[in-house]
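Take a protein:
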Amino acid sequence: MLNLLYPAARSILFKLDAERAHHLSMAGLRATEKLGLLKALSTQSEAKPVEICGLTFPNPIGLAAGLDKEANTIDALGSLGFGHIEVGTLTPKPQDGNESPRLFRLPEHQALINRMGFNNPGIDEGIANARSAESFKGIIGINIGKNKITPNEQANDDYAIAFKKAYPWADYITANFSSPNTPGLRDLQSEDAAGRLLEVLKNHQSKLHKETGRYVPFALKVAPDLDETQIAGLSRVFLDGGLDFLIATNTTLARDAVKGHVNAEEAGGLSGAPLTNHSTEVIGQFHSGMGKDIPIIGAGGIFTAEDALAKKEAGASLVQIYTGFVYRGPALIHEIIKAW
């Protein structure tokens, strides 16, 4: 039923400012879930478990970070059929993000541009929100980042603070060092900087594993705007550093595919259909460099089951959606699970 209702709801929401529509949608999901209506309206997902890094994902499709930034809609989103939900990005201190408007639709291209800037309530409130989830039985990932005011020289301190706070509650943790919307953040993707961040987080992971007896795997999330030399170099860094798994990819700064659109020159990261093929190519290149030693969660421009299967063929063990979910709704989740 929800699959049939979503196109009508989207037509109304798309008449509103994109960020306002987002907040209304999330509030509506929470209210509907609390009334017990969301589960009744949703299609039940087929169980197709996938195991990576000691975790059993109920099915291969997850929600990418960025939609549930406050980690307060996990149960409602889980009712739609996701096997895993990644919340955040959460930073050590709360921050408002960049000035509005900061989210733009490009419907003709099935795309979005955002320059949100890690707007979030901070890691403490985010964790408290995530802990309040009760009905979702899938995997919860917590995506962490550095605060905008923190210089890159101290970025690893921010990641360490958020990592240690997320560790007791997360099923896995993702360090986002590839958003284009925090000045200088992507500089952390150099081989040296990435290696240092990986070493810091692995040390904290090892210490917390010994203290708690619980091993929480973590990922790094990379940008699609890396060339073959950078991908090869990072693949070696990730293998040498013992990275658990990789998420590829984040949004792109490229605009070639959307030239001429009224919003094409807006600053920020472009997501959606223009990224479909390129993100798949990047997944394939990382898979070639890392083999089966480091699993990959594929993201970027997934609008159909075929898009998801192409990422699986390129080397992804799981996939995540965001922009495709905005445009297609819950129907996309079940199409991918059925085809997988």
